[in-house]
Amino acid sequence: MLDVKLLREQTALVKKNLEKRNDPEKLKMLSEFLKYDRKWRDNLKKIEEIRHRRNVLTKEMAALNSDRRKAQRKSNKKQTGTKIAEVKSLRKKAKTLEEQAEKNRQQALNARMRIPNLLDKSVPVGRDDSGNVEVRRAGKKPKFGFRPRNHVEIAERLGLADFTRAAKTAGAGFYYLKNELVVLDYALQRFAMDFLTKRGFTLIEPPYMIRRKPYEGVTDLSDFELVTYKIESEDAYLIATSEHPMGAMLMDEVLESKHLPIKLCGVSPCFRKEIGTHGKYTKGLFRVHQFNKVEQFVFCRPEDSWRIHEELQKNSEELYKKLGLHFRVVNICTGDIGTLATKKYDIEVWMADSEFRESGSNSNCTDYQARRLNIRFREKKGAPPAGFVHTLNNTAIATSRIMIAILEQYQQKDGSVRIPKALQPYMGGLKAIKPRKK
Length: 438
Description:
Layout: H1 4-9, H2 11-19, H3 24-66, H4 70-112, E1 133-138, H5 151-157, E2 161-162, H6 163-170, E3 176-177, H7 180-197, E4 202-204, E5 209-210, H8 212-218, H9 221-227, E6 237-238, H10 243-248, E7 254-256, E8 262-271, E9 290-300, H11 305-322, E10 327-331, E11 343-350, E12 356-364, H12 368-373, E13 376-378, E14 387-388, E15 390-398, H13 399-409, E16 417-418, E17 432-433
Parallel strand pairs: 4-8, 7-13
Antiparallel strand pairs: 1-10, 2-3, 5-6, 8-9, 9-15, 10-11, 11-12, 12-15, 13-14, 16-17
Helix pairs in contact: 2-3, 3-4, 7-13
């Protein structure tokens, strides 16, 4: 979330930045925050005034009670009774104000947590995904001397997946992987893990469930209920990405500057409801409720986050290049970027219908998540906190979408699919997935 001081003192700047997002609801959250924050502070001022008045009355009653003059006793008793009545009235009024102040504080916090991060000036302005700007393309576009098939046709022809029985068993958006495609999934994970650990990333297998409080710290609350699966009768949710438990693992901690950056490589399944995807590409493995992913996540000093953002992007692109895939990088525009990021790149893989579709993203969240999670840093042991860390997350490889790219870009006229050279050592030397003999 944004710095409360920024919201109060530079409201015009925040409003101007939010207007780029083309989302009236976000502007409404700024107005809601300012309204309830003002009420909260007004109530705190009134409560403080009541406390001051009660202290004055207490001293006055003590003075009256200490007066031993016989002639004044009757008058003092009457005055004391009046003051006691006022103290009781003030106590009741203070309790009402305290309850209202807490309600206003919570309302202000809820609105504040829904105000998006400020966008970097390099983010292109656009109303929706049509405003995303292509940065570059890489890899050679496949040339086929035949009509290329989509990954669903390929997988079913080669006996690599069963979507029909998965729908019968678990519902739409699930799949059974079979034979070499299972091995390919694990090969991709190990390939990315080896690549990143050699670059100084610490390998993490996180919990697959997370409590609500830390989850609210790392996610966009407006999407929370739409995306996450809740465990009934438990304070537990299935993770949508390893980014979330990795981001939350240092919640409420103060890190020493000499240990930064902390670079993590998360490996986990991801669980997503994917509600609201009407009209989007949903075939086969592309938009599913469960998939595996290798994620880059970094905690760093504020001055290092832009350099690291580009480093993470370079890592992902190098993985794609080693796999020999044709892809492009796009700078996500103001109308399409999520709540958490100040800037985001997407990598989109080329698919057999000649369309590029998202396979991973790279976000610099600056101190937005860290404020929600209360993750700070200090210059040396024993020193006071110097500020909040910056967090970054990047999809190294979402295996389901990379498997789509391999099946569609490496398909052959005889129905087989070649295995990228970089993955062959992870697949027992297998060079191609061939049609099975009937």
